[in-house]
Fold:
Amino acid sequence: MNIYANRAAVVGITGYAGRELERILSAHPHIQISGRFASRSDSVSGVEGFSPERLKACAPDVVVLATEHEFSMECVPWLLNEGYRVIDMSGAYRLKDSSLYPEWYGFHHASPHLLEQAAYGLPEFFSKAVSSAKLVANPGCYATAAILPLLPLYRAHAIDPDCTVVVDGKSGVSGAGRKPKPETHFCEVSENLRAYGVLKHRHTPEMVSFLPGAKLERFVFTPHLIPVNRGILNTIVLRHRPPGTVAAVLEEAYADSPFVKVFTERMPEIRDVVRTNACHIGVASRHGNTVVVCAIDNLVKGAAGQAVQNLNLMLGFPHSTGLQR
Structure:
């Protein structure tokens, strides 16, 4: 196939996830970046801001939005009306219930009719829907590192329904985005560890929405900011049923996965997965309790790498094409 037969435009290419997407696609064997845009005019980088006219001139097959939630919410309806297929890396189209947006995202959704149309872009479970979708909502980074280990367990009824599932998340600073904030300054992050978004982080309803049988009142997610550039480590605590099922369920679920690996002899570490699209899951069970540890790179499997998996599916390629495992 001609290397230029498939074209993608990236909006928001100056952010951390956008830059990572450009890095991966620059080596992709079948997909060319036909348009590079900042979400808005960016005099520092010199990258032109998004405009409908310039996008049309690029003639992309798929538009990938690595943009803020509000920008994506406003832009997606126009892109779909113009006939473009879209991958949105923000949270603007991840939740199916529009009533959740005011509480968890701080805005009322302007296009609630599109929420049901959006395919949730977790290729390990929803590849068929992604392949035919006009709009794909790329999952959140913390959500990816929680749903991948938990979804097979909820489906197999391997979690005690009376227990509270606790997800203790830790993320590198790039997860907060490139825009400067007082809490992500070097002196605030270095030699420090801080919990944030306690009981109100927006990835919580996303996790619960895609875990069959999960309930907000029995699901606690607490994110922490750690002094590393990139990577996520989720430590998940639950009570299992019946004995000995958790590792077996996960091993069976991911036996043929190119990216997800399950370990029972050791626990994953962030350094094992950075700059790859890998997801490492470790499992330990004792006395009815199970601890599941999941490690991913927040900018790759948690953002740009997963977007490339979805882009591959939408364009008819195996979802692992062009990605480091």
Remarks:
- The first strand starts at residue 6 and ends at 11.
- The chain has a mean pLDDT of 94.
